[in-house]
Amino acid sequence: MSQTYEVQSVALALAFALRFSVSARGEERLFYRNAAVFTISYAVFSIIGYVAEDHGFPSGSLMDLCWTVPFTLLSLLAMQPSLATYPQSRPSQLLNSSGLHGICAFGLATMSLTASGLLARHRPLFGGWVVFVAFCLLAARTIARELQLHRVHTQLEDFALRDPLTGLANRTALERALVGRDEVENRNSDRQTVVLFIDLDRFKLINDGFGHHFGDLVLKEVSNLLRLATREQDLIARQGGDEFVVLLDRIDLAGAQEVADRIGTMIRKPIQIAGKTVHLSASVGLASRGFGEGGETLLEDADCAMYNAKSLGRDRIELFTPELLIKAKSAHTLHTDLREALADGQITVHYQPIYGCESAEIKGFEALVRWRHPKRGYISPGDFIPIAEETGLIVELGQYVLRIACAQCHAWNVQFGRELAISVNVSARQFADRGFIRTVTETLEASGLRPQLLKLEITETVLLGGYGGIGEMLSELRSAGIKIALDDFGTGYSSLSYLMNFPFDILKIDRSFVSHIHHDFRRSETVRKIVELAAILGMRTIAEGVETAEELACVRDLGCDFVQGYLLSRPLAPEAVSALLSLEIKAAQSPSSKPVHSGHFTALAS
Ligand SMILES: Nc1nc2c(ncn2[C@@H]2O[C@H](COP(=O)(O)O[C@H]3[C@@H](O)[C@H](n4cnc5c(=O)[nH]c(N)nc54)O[C@@H]3COP(=O)(O)O)[C@@H](O)[C@H]2O)c(=O)[nH]1
């Protein structure tokens, strides 16, 4: 019976050696080598013992000590430096380093117990103490190691679930928490998990203006405010960038709105950071399963509501509704269709004439994009331009309009022997495109139009957009001869400072000042002052949105240089513009034509 151990050991050693020879992977080789060393040592020990001690040896003899040799060897192998790089992630791994440490401990324990067994035979009391102390040391070592492992594991897990900048939960932790709550949530209860999706408004301006380090300080401060505004049981996460998510636990709608209001108020208060005062605001989306069936996750719903808050002017709280999701899906469809429309030639450009107030002649046109959808019919630019801006498609769309408009204007100038100008709207996103200036100059060159006849119309959002070096870009365009017009002038909130800081050639006085100007003293005085200011600064003015003869008379009397509006002409297709220009030539040549000063503008019958 005792011989079967040796036979077994030899067989095992052979099996390991065989497996070792065919195995290619490092970690397997290591395992089989260790196992083989153990088996061979054990077999050698057994054979020696069997032969040397006449087919057996008494327990407690010196041979017993040799019994521990394989364990000792295995323990030493476990400590070899190559194990430091032993891969840990494979679940199929048979022996991980923790297992090998266990074997080490076991080997050492066996050795010390055998040694103390021998001692106990000769000096019983001393032997007993040695056994006890050895056992205690081993137990203490094992417990300490387990505690250390546990601590490292907890630290690693914490690290993986925390945002390193703010110390808040990160996206992974948030998703885990959301899945957990969605599973246990009772959807009929009026106290549910509510998600607040918070996005700081125009945070890019802070980063670009004061640097990323300062931006980080602001984000930390916002995290602290969120901690103050919420309860202990709520989860606050940083979703990335300037986006934060608060998971409000078991709360009703009124309570959730209260928290959202509190967050909005706290963020709105001026914050002192590194000696600077920062004014912030946030757009907040609020969603809960209780507010109707929504998208895939609560997070998407809250994100959708937050986008709605942004599109409604920022610095506000919006509740998710299923209609919003429909709107978002329709915007997505519109974006896909717009991409196809650009490729399919569904996009055209119409031109609204701009007249000189003094001469009553057409001086140029504003190029306005038009989209006739094959199924949905005419889609207003007011509907698709914001989507194109959001998705970045405006860069391609804007380039398209610029190319068509410049080429068309040049063709008219050649055909009618005129010096007509073309105004093209440019969005903030186009200015963010590094190649924008080159695109403009190359397009102009290809069209043959003189740069002085191109007017780029920008709105305050371009200046607010936070794209670095906007002033330099405008100056560069102007030094190429291109004119810059500030559109919708007067509707923003700090336009006067822009007049000082940015180079403009033209101010377009917004329709809201022109409408009913003839019987509104405040409006007429405002326009008078704008015209005076523009004259001082060497700029010219266009009154836009003129719809009645009275409005026209008024803006002319106030000294506006140019005028544009439905009274004179709606935006026209290119063929209609050609007809209008022919008509204007005929009218000028006609002996019955009255002096321009009497207000006879040439327009097509509408
Ligand atoms: N970035 C780009 N934006 C563009 C482009 N083409 C148009 N747009 C912008 O879309 C908004 C809506 O444009 P649209 O529906 O074409 O309206 C223009 C005019 O038709 C309208 N208008 C002109 N006169 C009158 C008027 O007497 N009354 C009245 N109610 N509306 C009038 O105003 C719009 C032009 O406004 P503005 O640009 O401020 O001069 C609009 O914001 C366009 O800018 C494009 O190619 N790129």
TrEMBL record:
The chain crosses the membrane at residues 36-53, 98-119, 126-144. Keywords: Membrane, Transmembrane, Transmembrane helix. Pfam families: EAL, GGDEF. GO terms for biological process: cellular response to nitric oxide. It catalyses: 3',3'-c-di-GMP + H2O = 5'-phosphoguanylyl(3'->5')guanosine + H(+). One of its GO terms (molecular function) is cyclic-guanylate-specific phosphodiesterase activity. Residues 331-585 form the EAL domain. This is Diguanylate cyclase (GGDEF)-like protein. It comes from Granulicella aggregans.
